[in-house]
Structure formats: structure tokens, C-alpha cells
Amino acid sequence: MEGTRISRRSFVKAAAAATAAVAASGFASSLAPVDPAKADEAEEEQIVCSSCRACISNCGVLVHVKNGRVVKIEGDERDPMSKGRVCAKGLAAIQALYNPNRMKYPFKRAGERGENKWERISWKEAIDTIADNLMEIYEKDPMKLVISTGGGGNPQFFGLHRFLQAFGGGNFFEPGCAQCYLPRMCTQPMLNGCNDTSISDSTVGEIYYEDATPACLVMWGADPSQSHVTSGGRAVNALRMKGMKTVVVDPRFTPDAAKADVWLPIRPGTDVAMMNGWIKYIIDNDLYDHEFVMKWTNLPYLINEDTMLLYHADELGIGSHDEYVVWDKKTNAPAPLPYPWNDDLDVELDGEFEVDGKKSRTAFRALVENVAEWTLEYTAEITWCEAEDIKKAIDIYVEGSPHSGIGIGVATDQYEQAAQAPEGVTIIESLMGNYCHQGNTIQSRKNQSLGTYFLFPFNLFGPSPFTPTEECVNRRLGVIEHKGLNYWMASHIPTIMKAVATGEPYQPEMWIDRSGNKLAMVGNSPTFLEAMKNMKFIVHMYMYPTTTSVELADIILPTAEWLETAYGADRCNYWFIRRDVVHTYEHVDETLIWSWFVEALAKRGHKLAEMSFDPANCGPAGAYWHNYDEYKAYLAAFMGNSFGEQWTWEDACEKLPAPFTTMQDWIESSWDSYLAPGEDGLPAGFATTSRKAEPYGEAMTIMGRTGGPSGSSFWDGYVLPPASVDYLPLPKYVEPAESPLTDEAHPYVITEGRVPMYHHGTLRNVPWMRELYPVPRTWINPETAAEIGVEDGDWCYIENDRGTIQGQVLVTKAVAPKVIYQERFWNPELLDSDDPSRAWKVMNINVITKNDAPYNPEYGTYTLRGFTVNIRKAEGAPEGVWTEPEQFAAWLPEVTDETGGGYAVYVA
Amino acid sequence: MKHDLQELFARNRAYAALYRAVLRACSEYRSLDVLSECIEQQKTSASQIQSAAAIIESLVRNGGLETRVLVNGEVYNGTLRDAQADDSIPQDAVVTQEYKTTQAGVDAVNTYNPESLIDSLIATHPSYELGYYLVLEACEAQDGVSTQELQKILREAGALPQDPVNGVETVHASYFTGALETAGALEWRNGAWHITEAGKRVSR
After folding, report:
1. Are A709 and A784 found together in one domain?
2. Do A488 and A585 have their domain in common?
3. Are the C-beta atoms of A261 and A404 separated by less than 8 Å?
4. Is residue A619 in some structural domain?
5. Are residues A544 and A633 in the same domain?
6. Domain count, chain A
């Protein structure tokens, strides 16, 4: 720009070009006018089969498109999970797609972080700038790169791990992860040899089978009526109407609790106490399945008390390493037990013996002792439930076994005992033999995708040129201490923060975030902001400007809404396709953005990046893509595999949705599968080291010492240094670090939980959704409300030593006295205010959640539920927040036409 | 939002050196062209993506620079907006803006003392002293040195502390390069770590 000699008329134009300071929201008035697209004649309305991604359910939908615009969404009745239902989140997709505040183009920050001033740049400039930074980081030390995603906003979850493997290092994190799904997803299959039992993550296929009704479903910290509305919520409701009994363990009186046979309003953070109470009751009353426990679990095996691990016969010189050791009553001596059983032995299940000169208990005896104190009365006292109700709940569950099942939800992932809760559930189910029978949640059937994703890291299928090096795995921040994170190849958020803030053990410098709203989602977010300010270069990619964009980003990239993306979803025995029905402004599917980064790196001589475009190097994960058509070809080929066919994208569009097998085969193939002969002619058993269910969780102990249950790290097979504390094989209850029993200054315990109109941080800017739930409601029991001095509809402050937020009181018996509930929230309307940081501060529970120790040892989980607060009345709502329907009208859709998206303006 | 120079430097680490360079350059009034060239010459990292105008504007907003407007080379008593709206100024008048460091800006530069920052860094982390000096020494090489090479040097010298429980190294060479770069003792140039003049004065 010429700055020294300039006339006044041209000055204004040039000044605007130099620092085009535009707020990241409300760009509509800044757009250059273009001729509107016109069709020569009115088109007929097309109905396109697709799959929603407003949340992780991926329900089948029919999208109506007319004149290049989405005009209607309805459910697809062929979907075996949702049966044609669509929830509010799915229906909100049109308002989300055409939201006037979409990030429409790439932008570069034009002011300081936090000022919300941006200048528009081209995709080429954006990709080149980012790639230059990536190369600089790669040359300095690739571990200095941090990338992150989130569960909301149609993420391509493992696309990030894939990118890091093509990059050659780096740390990955996600605000969920150790605080959402990972603890269950890793622990349960590690111990039960089958699956995790998360209804919301679509791993409980049993509930969609209409030909058989489970006897009893326990929803433990799970509320599918709100978190999986049209699929799990619908299916559970249908089963209830057919006579399935239900038990709900939840601090909140949710819609599922309202219909349950028993609701246990558990004190937040005491799930392991409750589980140990269930275990003791089942054992003391001899209610367990003796045959299954004896022959299909590791509970009869003898423990080496020095190591906490089960004896192998070779250690005692009585057999081979493959054989575990039991106590034979006939010989009154330890005996090797070949797989699966030896009828010549009379095995003692419950005992303590002398083996090799030392005390050795059976694992069953260790379990009995582990729960010795957990009488119904003590359990009731700790969990704030009634002993009689606990007994009733257990009796219903036991009576239904072996056709009962427990579905465990995100609640138990969100505090210090994140590993112990799925351990407890596994023990309960193992005692009752609820494995691979009709009605069980534990089944050996596998989904076609991994956690609903089928874009994979390169190393998922075995060694590859992109397998992270041992140094890389060891240097993932926090992973040595919290080995379970390696299951998702993730790093520990507090350890990342410490590294960014202090430089130890090394200084991360660059952060690429693909998700909505870290400052609304991570624990104790003010500390997160302070740490991340130290990052030198931050990229944020999302559909809308959020707190991350405004407070931290240097470049923002506009990602596509799900209606603009191509993908697929396996729904029980069906594949559904997601079709990119429109492409607006310069939006791009994040999957391709990562691909563009890799391509730009390849052009800069990055060898691994170059190799990642050659299929010969990439194995089943497939090579990277130069354009969206190549990516779609990958998707089609993957889905076609399920049908034994080679598909193009056009084939997939034509053929899907379609079943790849019958529902009966898909469901019933798992029943009694552990008894069916395996490759060696013996019963297949379960996918554990012992081939039996492993309620005695030595796999956890081994993971802590080496990196994985088999003695080395997940996926890559490195033997990692041990964690500083052993992971215990049986769950012990630990009172929350911030406890209402002892915290006099903050006498109430708070929890979170889903509401059906939002998914994580998404949709707070969709006008009709905000109208439904404009502000977070603070649930307070009438007794507690009277104590505090608040009434229904009042505004209140919720505070602790970490900060203060607000909520609007809902006085309700749906929570127990001294238990408070409030869901996460943030206020997009405040991004345009004089202080954009208020958007994530005023009503966001994550200002006051806890991200310091103690962490869950196995996964590093910090505390988002079950911490203490105080409540006091506030004068009114926080200034500037929108609460009335008319206010949200500013976000009503501004429909726009097909542009081809960012693919039309950038060629990698 | 709060406007404060030290806060500006802290929130925008990638630009701290550039901000200081501009503040040093503006002991007298300087034009945007001169400062733009200065900024471009001082850029050392791909992370420094902001335009010169944006960088300068940040310093103005945070009180590090004062401005004056010239109309046809004469000092104008008013702001740019005033000049734009001033009908007495001919349409074809040449209007420019110049920048000069304020006292706050001078203070911010004067309080920056890389030698003392480096000394303080070493003094507050005595267990890492050997590591700091090994890195400084290695980075005196004419072509600089890579992080991997530094890691090897540090490991062979036993300068990487280990966790007493599991033997894991508790810092990496990138800790030392990061800390020394922030203190002004090292810079990343042409794909390698190089010692700066300030670093040379501290290195033994």
C-alpha cells in the first residue's frame, strides 16, 4: 500500500485495505454484493437421503432441496434406530446452515487477541500461512504442535490423528476425551472383551431389536431421552412400553427416570460407592451366576499379591504361561487351568491360600474384600439414596438376568473415578453373566465404524511408515502418567496447559483447533485461556465465530455444516449416506482442510506428507485426498466393503440407505458367540488376554506399568515407562476432593447433564432452539431453595473459589436437597459486545469446574461433575444476555445460494 | 478491553520482538512506510502474520506510540478522521500519519533487558544451569544447531533431569530453546537455532 503520498479520497479506501477491521460476527453487511443465482425455471423439490450430524447419533433423514436450497428435513423411516424420527437438533439444521453469523471466508486477525477484528484472506493465503507455520514447527520440534477437536459440530474425529501421523508428531486433545467417552470406551472392552455400553454412542444395538425385549435396562448416568433422543430415547421408550423394566441411576429426575421402575437419585460423584453396594448385595445374597462366574470370568484365578497380577502357571512351575492358576479342592493345591476349563478340577472360587510360600487370594475373594464395607445402609448413606430403593433396583436387575444390561453414560466419565465406574459396571455384569445373551448391553457384535467414525489414523491397522515413533508417544504430554489417553492417542489437557504456561517439559507454540468453543467446554476455562495465550500461532476452524476465535485465534477457517458434507453412518445393520446437498460461501469440510495442510506440507518438501498421498504407503486407512471427489471415493469404497462390492460415490448415492445384513443376523450373531468355536476349535471366548471376562482388572494394572493390557502401548506396541502410581485392579470408592460432606464454605454439590436441544457447545445461536431453552436453568430442590432464599425464576450466582457464574433458578424436586444441576452454556450474542469474553463467562459452568489434581490415574480425568459450590440470589440476568424470543430474530436464516464452497476457489 | 503494553506483549508473544523493534525505531516521528520496512526486516517466524499497519495500530491503542497527521507535509492539529471531515483541506491534499514512541513505550523498551532475563532464568532454575550453558554454547555454531542435535548433546552430558520414580526425562531440549528464545538468548533462523548477541554476552 502506498502510504506516503496519498490523496484524501483514495486514503479511505487504502486505509480500509490496510486494516480491514471487521467483527467476526455479523459479517453480512460487509459482503460484496453478487448477482443472485437464478434458475431458468423453478426446480422440482428433490428429496435426498442423508444422515444428520447435529449430534453423534447420525439419524437417517430426508433432506428436501429446491432451487439449490435446503427447505425441509424429515426423518427416514428406514433407519432401524430412529424409525423416521428427527429431534429438534436435526430440524435446526436449516437455521444452522443459513445462520447469518456463519464464518463464510478465511480471516486473519487484524487486531489483538480478544478485539474481534479481522481481515478477509483467500484460502490460498490461509493454507500457505498455516503450512509455513507447520513447517517451522516441524523443523524446530514437531511435538510443539497441538491440535484439538470436539464432539460438537460434525467433527471428523480421527482425521486429526491421521494428520499428526502425516505431520510426524504433535499433541492431540479434546475437551471430551478423558472427560467424555474415552474412559468407558477403553475400560469396558478391555475388561469385558466385547464393547462399551454407551447408548448415546450407538454401541448398544440390542435396544433396537424389535423381535426381543430385554428384561431390564439399567441406565447408569445415561439419559437417552435427552442425549440420543430419536434413536436411543425412542427405542428405550418403545421397549418400556413392551414391558422392559428400567432402573435409572441419575442425580436428575430425567424423562427416563420419570418412567423408570426405580430411580436412584445418586449424589454426584458417588457412583463407585453405589456399584460396590450392588456388588456386595449380589455376592452376599448369592445372586450371581455361579456357572458364568466360575467358567467365564477370571474371578477364580489366584493372585500374586506382590504384583497384584494373576498367576500364570509357569511362574509356579506347574504349567505353561497360557494357563492361569486356580485352587483345586480335590488336591488342596494350586493347579493350572487350561483354556477354557478342566472338568477334572474342583475349583474353589472364594478363598485365601498359601501359594509359593505366600498368601494368595482368589480374585473373587479380593473382590469380596474390596466391597466388604458396602452394606446397603452404608451405600445409601454415602450416595444419598434410600437403602430400600437400592435393593429394589438390584432385585429388578438380578431378576431379569441373564437378559438384563447396564448402559453407562458420560456422567461417570467426568470426575476422578472415570475408570473405576466402568470397572464397577463390568464386575456387576460379570457376576450376573449378562454377556452376549438376548437383552444384554454387552455384545460381541462390532459396528462397521469405530465410534461412528470410519476415517482412520494410519497406524490403526498395524505398523506403517506413519506409525508414531516411540519418542513421539513417550513425549505426548501427560501420557506416561495417564496411559489410558493413548487409546485415543491423546495428551492430557492440564499437562498441555502447564507446558504452554511454563515451557516444561517443552514449549508448545502452535495450536490448530477444529471445534466450537474451548472456553465454554474445557474445565476451569479461565486458566485455560491464560495458558493458551502463550501460544504463538493459533488457527481456529469452525462453522461460527466462537469464544476461541475471538479470544485466541490468529486465523479462522470456515468449516461446513453437516448439510454441506459427505459422509456415512452405520446404523445397526444399515449403512446410511450423508450427502453434501449444498455448498455455501467458501465453506469446506474439515476433512479436506487437513488434507490441504498435508498437501501444502508436501509441496514444501515434507517427506512424510509426500508419502501420505501414495496408497502404497497407507494401507487400509487409504491415502490423503487432493480434492473432495477423491475423499468421497474413499467413503464409498469403505461403505461398499460391507456389501462385498466396489462402489463409486455415485453408486453409494444410488444404493444407500441399505442393509448389509438382516437385523436378525446382526443382532443374533452375538448371542452365545463366546461359546461358538474359534479359529483354534476352542470356544471363542472374549477378546481379552485370558479370553474370559476380566472383572478382576489386572489389565488396568498392566496398562499403567507398560502402556496397554497386553504389556505394551495401544496401537503401536511400545513398552512405556510406568506411571508413578499403580492402577488398581479393583475399584475403590474415593470421596470427591471437593465434598459437600466437608466443604462448609460451599455446601452444595453440582452436576451437569444433557438437554435435548443442544449438543455440547452447539446451537446456542440457532434462534428457535434458544427460544426453547434461552438460558441455563439452575435446578434447586425446594428445601435448598428455601435455605438459600431463592424462588423459581429468580436469577442466582453460583460460585466457588474458581469463580462466579449465573443461572436462572428452577425450583424442583427433580434433584435432591443440596444437589444442584446446571448444563453448560455460552452466549454468542455477547461476542459483539464491548467485552466478548463475557460470552463464555457469564453463564458457563466451566468457569467454575475443576481442572487440577486429583485426576483419575488411568485417564487423567479432571472434575466437571460432583464438585462443590455456593448459591446466592442475584439481582437479575447478566447484562446483555438475550432471553426473549424477539431477540433471537437477529439470527433467523439468511438463505444463500450454491457457490461450490471453498472447493471452488482453492485447488490444492 | 484493557489496553496495556505489557499485557499486549504477553497476549501476543509472537509479536513481542516486533513491537519492541517498532518502539525502538520511533524515537523520532516515522512514517508507515519506514516502519513497515523495519517490521519486515525484523520478522523471524512464520507465526508473525499480521500486517505492519495492524502491528502499529496495536501499539497506538495500547499507548506505546503517539501519532500525528501531516497535511502536505505540515503538522495538522487533529486526527485522521478530523482531516477527512475538514472541508478546508483540498481534495488532492497529501495526508499522512506518523508515529513516535511515547514515554510508556520508551519505558517498556528500557525495562526489557535480555541479559538480565537470561541471568534470571538461569538463577531461578539452578538445576537446569548446565543445560542452559550447553545449549548456548552449541548455538554459537556458525550454521546453528537443530533441536535433535541439542537433545543429543544434553542427554550425553547428563543435563536432562529424570523423574526419580520412573526415570523419564522431565525436560526436553525444546524446554531450553523455548526458555532461551523467550529471554532473547536464541533465535530460530534458517532452520536452526542461533545464539543472539545478548546470548553471547551471557554464555560462558
Report:
1. no
2. yes
3. no
4. yes
5. yes
6. 4
Closest CA relative to residue A484, chosen from A240, A229, A145, A720: A720
Q: List residues bridging with A67 in a β-sheet.
A: none
Minimal Cα–Cα distance from B72 to chain A, Å? Answer: 9
DSSP state at residue A232? I
The answer to whether residue A765 sits within a structural domain is yes
Distance CA A168, CA A180 (A): 26
Residues A901, A142: Cα–Cα separation, whole Å: 31
Using the CB atoms, write b or e for A752-786: b if 16+ within 10 Å.
Answer: bbbbbbbbbbbbbbbbbbbbebbbbbbbbbeebbe
Domains and CATH numbers, chain B: 5-110 (1.10.10), 114-202 (1.10.10)
A706 and A619 part of one domain: no
Q: Report whether A422 contacts A187 (CB < 8 A).
A: yes
Q: State the CATH number of the domain containing residue A811.
A: 2.40.40.20
Calculate the CA A204 to chain-centre distance.
15
Residue A865 lies in a domain: yes
Q: Are residues A352 and A461 in the same domain?
A: no
Helix (H/G/I), strand (E/B), else coil: A407: strand
Q: Give the HSE-up count for residue A451: Cα atoms under 13 Å, Cβ half-sphere.
A: 18
Closest Cβ–Cβ partner in A113, A129, A555 for B11 = A113
Same domain, A638 and A759: no
Chain A residue numbers with beta carbons less than 8 Å from the beta carbon of B54 are: 19, 109-111
Q: What value does the mean pLDDT take over residues A80-87?
A: 97
From A650, A665, A680, give the residue that closes a domain.
Answer: A665
Contacts of residue A617, defined as CB under 8 A and 6 or more positions apart, other chains included, come to A464, A465, A466, A611, A623
Return the HEC string of chain B: CCCCHHHHHHHCHHHHHHHHHHHHHCCCCEEHHHHHHHHHHHCCCCCCCCCHHHHHHHHHHCCCEEEEEEECCEEECCCHHHHHHCCCCCCCCEEEEEEEECHHHHHHHHCCCHHHHHHHHHHHCHHHHHHHHHHHHHCCCCCCECHHHHHHHHHHCCCCCECCCCCCECCCHHHHHHHHHHHCCEEEECCEEEECHHHHHHCC
Do A753 and A708 share a structural domain? Answer: no
Question: Which of A407, A81, A395 is CA-nearest to residue A217?
Answer: A407
| Joined grid coordinates for residue A825 | 452454556
H-type helices in A285-386, by residue range?
Answer: 290-296, 363-370, 376-383
Q: pLDDT band at A12, cuts 50/70/90?
A: very low
Residue where one domain finishes, among candidates A361, A389, A405: A361
Nearest CB to B91; choose among A7, A108, A721: A7
Rounded distance between C-alpha atoms, residue A792 and residue A216, angstroms? 36
Domain of A704 in residue numbering reads as: 696-731
The Cα A406–Cα A425 span in angstroms is 7
Q: B150-200 pLDDT, tens per residue?
A: 999 999 999 999 999 888 999 999 999 999 998 889 999 999 999 999 899
Same domain, A701 and A560: no
CB contact under 8 Å between B54 and A536, yes or no, is no
Cα(A563)–Cα(A775) distance, rounded to whole angstroms? 27
ipTM comes to 0.94
* Residue A505 in this model has a pLDDT that exceeds 80: yes
> Å from A6 to nearest chain B CA?
5
Residue B116: pLDDT band with limits 50, 70, 90: confident
Chain A residues whose beta carbon lies within 8 Å of the beta carbon of residue B169: 505
- Facing residue for A503 by CB, picked from B1, B45, B178: B178
Average pLDDT over residues A407-417: 98
User: Once rounded to an integer, what is the mean pLDDT over residues A418-437?
Assistant: 98
* Contact between chains at B178 and A722 (C-beta distance less than 8 A): no
Q: For residue A700, is it within any domain?
A: yes
Torsion of CA A418, A423, A425, A426, to 10 degrees: 150
